[in-house]
């Protein structure tokens, strides 16, 4: 989720922000890179939701990575963003976003803001996004990046994701971008009945679990083997 050498320089003015506001770049290189990413990494696999594909095509991923790594911003791999954190590979971002079946009226909790890239994709698809990052420097940087890109429907704060964000609960959807050894109970409690959660779980071997909360508990709908950074900050019992 990384250290930039300097504050990111955006190549174009930011549009006045609606919830899907993006800078109107004329840089054909980055536009072509995003199109290739969508065609080769996403559409060629199992990402078929047109809204997700459009969001991935719009969000300038290269502005969420360190300047030295921007040439690799649209590669099919995660990238280091410093402080021991990463920005997930585009396919994983798209897979989790698609699995959550996001609608414009949804309120989403994200645990693990990192660079803010996943939050930007969520903001394109949902109504309000509340994102928590345990590393204060990353939280501040992501907040500024999202502000400069015109996203007014994202709130970012530094904090411990294990506690969730109770002041804004319940949430229609919850997405976790770091792996705990088990699903944090507070997150289950803050998810609406019939709401969806996407979360990687495990130590060593990890499985991304897509779950629905029912009156009887959490039901697993889909799984995918993954590798995320560990989720830190687990309360000591």
CATH fold category name:
Rossmann fold
Let me know the average pLDDT.
90
Helix percent reads 25-40%
Fourth CATH level, the homologous superfamily: Vaccinia Virus protein VP39
In angstroms, what separates the terminal alpha carbons?
Answer: 27 Å
Label the overall shape: globular
Q: What is the spatial order of strands in the main beta sheet?
A: 5-4-3-6-7-8-9
Estimate nothing, just give the exact number of structural domains. 1
Question: How does the SSE layout of this entry go?
Answer:
Layout: H1 28-43, H2 50-58, E1 79-82, E2 85-87, H3 90-99, E3 107-111, H4 117-125, E4 128-133, H5 136-148, E5 154-158, E6 171-176, H6 185-189, E7 191-201, E8 206-214, E9 217-226
Parallel strand pairs: 3-4, 3-6, 4-5, 6-7
Antiparallel strand pairs: 1-2, 7-8, 8-9
Summarize this structure briefly.
Helix content is 26%, strand content 25%. It is built from 6 helices and 9 strands. A 7-stranded mixed beta sheet has the order 5-4-3-6-7-8-9.
Q: Could you characterize the architecture of this molecule?
A:
The chain is of the alpha/beta class and 237 residues long. The chain has a single domain (28-226), classed as Rossmann fold. 26% of the residues lie in helices and 25% in strands. The chain has helices spanning 28-43, 50-58, 90-99, 117-125, 136-148, 185-189, and strands at residues 79-82, 85-87, 107-111, 128-133, 154-158, 171-176, 191-201, 206-214, 217-226. The strands form 2 sheets. A 7-stranded mixed beta sheet has the order 5-4-3-6-7-8-9. The protein has a two-stranded antiparallel sheet with strand order 1-2. A hairpin with a 2-residue loop joins strand 1 and strand 2 (85-87). Helix 1 packs antiparallel against helix 2 (50-58) and helix 2 crosses helix 4 (117-125). The longest helix is centred in the first third of the chain and has 16 residues, at 28-43.
